Amino acid sequence: MRARIVHESMYGNTAAIAAAIAVGLGEYFSVETVTVAEAAESPLPAVDLLVVGGPTHAFGLSRPQSRQDAAERSETPIATEVGIREWLRDAERVAPGARAVAFGTRLARPRWLTGSAARGAGKLLRRAGYELATPPMDFLVESTTGPLTTGEVERARSWASRLARAEADRGADHR
Questions:
Q1: CATH of span 2-173
Q2: Are the C-beta atoms of 33 and 22 separated by less than 8 Å?
Q3: Which of 139, 83, 80 is nearest to 108 (CA)?
Q4: What is the pTM of this model?
Q5: In the chain, which ranges are continuous DSSP H helix?
Q6: DSSP 3-state of 43
Q7: 5/33 Cα distance (integer angstroms)
Q8: Percentage of the chain surpassing pLDDT 90?
Q9: Cα→Cα distances 119→29, 30, 155, Å
Q10: Contact 58, 116 (CB under 8 A)
Q11: Per-domain residue ranges for the chain?
Q12: Between 102 and 43, residue with greater pLDDT
């Protein structure tokens, strides 16, 4: 089975979660991890599971201005042209039965105070025709630029491992 992880990361926190998810999925899937900028340059290859994630900016998915603001606070170059929001909004509808999952990073505060990029990505995935394999998942950071809250990398790996096992079992049941 094949999985593709498409992520957007400003300070490396979401990228670290994407890498942990790749490890967790790797038990059952051949996994490719790409940035949203890379994904926007070519058509989506055929995959059994699309995993999409980004950081929470102003209660949801990033926007051009929030990416620009992040770029100004970072010493590392940040791609600001396209984010998860634009990539999914412009995505072609998929065939019935296509499976996806959304994740995000957000401040370690109550979700009603922070919002959730994962929830926004999940809505856009459903709008594009994907069936969500599991509810969107948030992973926590201590401040706007990080670091990740202690244990979040392992939690992401474990979450992805359980997801991979469930998807593998689901595939076996559909044969």
A1: 3.40.50.360
A2: yes
A3: 139
A4: 0.95
A5: 13-25, 36-40, 64-73, 84-89, 111-114, 117-127, 152-173
A6: coil
A7: 5
A8: 82
A9: 24, 26, 18
A10: no
A11: 2-173
A12: 102
* 22 has pLDDT over 60: yes
Task: Please give the single-letter amino acid code of residue 67.
Answer: R
The pLDDT score that the predictor gives to residue 1 is 95
DSSP 76-103: S----S--HHHHHHTPPP--TT-EEEEE
122 burial class (0-12, 13-18, 19+ CB within 10 angstroms)? buried
Pair 106, 116: CB distance under 8 Å: yes
Per-residue confidence (pLDDT) for residue 175, from 0 to 100: 52
pLDDT confidence of residue 31: 98
pLDDT tens digit sequence for 99-155 = 999 999 999 998 899 999 999 999 999 999 999 999 999 999 999 899 999 999 999
Per-residue tokens: 173? 């049941």
Find tokens 């990740």 and name the residue.
Answer: 148
H or E stretch covering 139: strand 137-141
**The token pair that represents 41 in the structure block:** 């340059």
Q: Do 102 and 133 touch, CB atoms closer than 8 A?
A: no
147 φ/ψ sector (left φ>0, alpha ψ -120 to 50, else beta): beta
Compute CA 125 distance to the chain's CA centroid, rounded to the nearest angstrom: 11
* Contact of 63 with 87, CB cutoff 8 Å: no
